[in-house]
Amino acid sequence: MSSPELEFTGRRRRRIILAASAGNFAEWYDWGVYGVVATIIATQFFPPGDAVVGLLSTYAVFALGYLARPFGGIVFGRIGDKFGRKRALSLTILVTCGGTAAMGVLPTYAQIGLVAPVLLVICRMAQSMGAGGEYASAISFVYEHSPLGHRARNVAQLVATTFVGIMTGTVLARVASAVMSKEAYNAYGWRILFFVAVPLAAFGFYLRSRVEETPEFEELARVRRETASEASPVRSTLRRQWPAMTVLLVCTASYALISTTITSYLTTFLIDVNGLSTGDAYNATILSNIAVIIATLVMGVVCDRIGLRRTLTIAGVVVAVAAVPVLALAAHGLAGGLIGGFLIGACKGLLAVPALLALSAIFPSSVRVTAGALAYNVAQSLFGGTGPFIGVWLNDTTGSPYGFGVYLAVLALVTVVGSVAGRRVFDRRYSSSRDTLDASGRGGPAAQRMADTA
């Protein structure tokens, strides 16, 4: 088998990252759109009356959708670890974008009553299930194609397309709300944002279907054939990888929360707490996503230089210190909203690379997608899916933006403690040549202690 160091160059490198990124862009565009139109969904799919109750209901649906993410992680993780990363990636984009496009044609509460929110939940579950398998599959795909010294920065490029996709949803919402009257946009204009999922899915599926499988998985599949080993990623993951999965869950809790803060709650926060207009809130959210993208790309280089665990620890400390003052700043006026939004976006970018790189870096290739997807999506369900709901509830209960900021700061401290306590997990590395000798997923001879330099 030729070395990934030699293969991941030039045209091939661009094609692989483009295929992974195009699908990633499509799926996370879909994910972000729900958040930027949450205030409209609250009026379209739930009984009229208390605006706070309607918004809480919208985010309750958001949280319910997250329950499907661990299930999606198991289903698509098994596909990725048993049949290949490429096949999992091709399926996740169809499921996620299908759920998103379906939201664009749903009848409203005024048309069919309580059936409307039920259908909304079903679409969100489908969208969440696909997203649950997407990240771990895409990150493993790029990680396994990358040379050792460039894994973080290549994964950072992939992760950045996530935020470009989310930001694109906000930009299109801003354009649509500007060129259409408020009545037209609220009545049907928001649906256009969901229909965009169809061409994005087609393009992403086409690109992903034309790239080759990763060298690590091809070697793993070869060993399985020669030894007549049956892949059992779910059973092996639960039995042998639970310590590393626990560390990953703990360390990604703050990222799970801050990721939904930008993706699905910041716009609502700026409108309801700060009092900004919809257009100004969209502008601040766009600026925030620009900060995320910049910080992500920078942290990819930093992580390759100083190591995964150190990068995660530093990011957790910064977010713990900045969370409360930054959200407090974002709650006061247009300038505060723009600056605070930019800074909270930068905090998200700091956490993104080490948190998401860990999905692949701390697990052997035989169970990499399953283990990473399951642990990460449980964290997303517990802390990400409930984040907007808790944010609305805390701010409404306390009458200030500080409660949610304290919650984020506490979880960031948990990340710091987890990264320090989980040193042995983060310092472990797996070489593809040795890892594939144990095709059952035990790790056995694959496990090796190395310096924290990946």
Automatic annotation (TrEMBL):
Pfam families: Sugar_tr. InterPro entries: H+-coupled_symporters, MFS_dom, MFS_sugar_transport-like, MFS_trans_sf. It is a multi-pass membrane protein. It is found in: Cell membrane. The chain crosses the membrane at residues 16-45, 51-68, 89-112, 118-143, 155-176, 188-207, 242-262, 282-302, 314-335, 341-362, 374-394, 406-426. Its main location: membrane. Keywords: Cell membrane, Membrane, Symport, Transmembrane, Transmembrane helix, Transport. It comes from the Bacteria. Residues 16-430 form the Major facilitator superfamily (MFS) profile domain. Residues 434-454 are annotated as: Disordered. Gene3D superfamilies: MFS general substrate transporter like domains. This is MFS transporter. It comes from Pseudonocardia alaniniphila.
